[in-house]
User: Fold this.
Amino acid sequence: MQERAEKNGLEGFSDHELLEMLLFYARPRVDTNPIAHELINTFGSVKGVLDAGTDDLCRVDGVGPAAANLIKLIPELLRRYELCALRKTVCYNEMEKIAAFMHPCFIGLDTERLYLALFNSRMNLLDCVLISEGSVNATDSSLRKISELILNKRATCVVLAHNHPQGVAFPSEADLCTTSTIQEFLRPLNVSILEHFIFNDHRYYPIMFHHFKALRPTRASGLYSADFYDRFYRDLKKEGEIQPLFAKDVEKCKENEQKSQD
Assistant:
C-alpha cells in the first residue's frame, strides 16, 4: 500500500483503505484491513469514524487506545489547518466571515466548548482561545481568563462561540445568562461582545442579534456605530433569519426548542 501511495498518490484509495493504512502506524504487526472495514460498518462513514469518541472507537475489535488516539488526531489537525488558512482574511467586519472562521473549532466535537475570538479596532483577528470545555457558564476562572486575554492582546471587541453537539443551534436560558454576565463584566473594560454564536453541525445562531439588540453599543458610546452593525449583519433577512453559510430556518430552531420544553 505504501508503494502504491508513493507511485500513484492517495486519491485512488477507498475509504476503508485509507483507514487501513492509517491504522498500520498504530498496529504495524496486525492486518488492519478487517479493522478498517469494521470501523466503517460501525460508524457509517469516514466522518462517523473521525467524529466518534475515543471510548466508542476502543469498543471496535482491534482498536486500542493508541489507534483511537491516532484517529482522533486527524480532526484536531484538520481544525487547526482550517483555522490557520482562515486567519489570512484581513478584516472580519462581517458576521459571516467570523462564523466561517470559528466553525472549524467545533468540527467532530461531542462535548461543549466555549471559544473567545479577540479583535482590534480595525477588526483584525488578534487571537482565538479556548475558554472552557464541558459546559458553558461564566465562572470566576473563565471571566478572569477572558479579562487577561483582552488586556494582554489589547482587544477592543470580542466574539464568543460555543457548540450544542447534542442539541439545536438555539440558546438556552443558561446561554443567555452567561452572555449577559460576560457582557456586564466587560463593560468597565470598554470592550463589547460583537456576537455570541451557537454552532450545531452546519448551523449557527447569533445570540446578540436576536436577544441583546437594545444593549448594543451605539455611536454615542464611542464604540461601534449603527452603520457598523448594518454592515456586520448585512446578510440577515429582514425578519432576522440567517442567509445560508452554515445556517437558516431560525424559526424552525425556535419551534424545536419550544417542543422540547413542552
User: Anything to note?
Assistant: The chain is about 45% helix and 15% strand. Confidence is low (pLDDT under 50) at residues 237-250. The beta strands are 113-119, 125-133, 157-163, 192-200, 203-206.
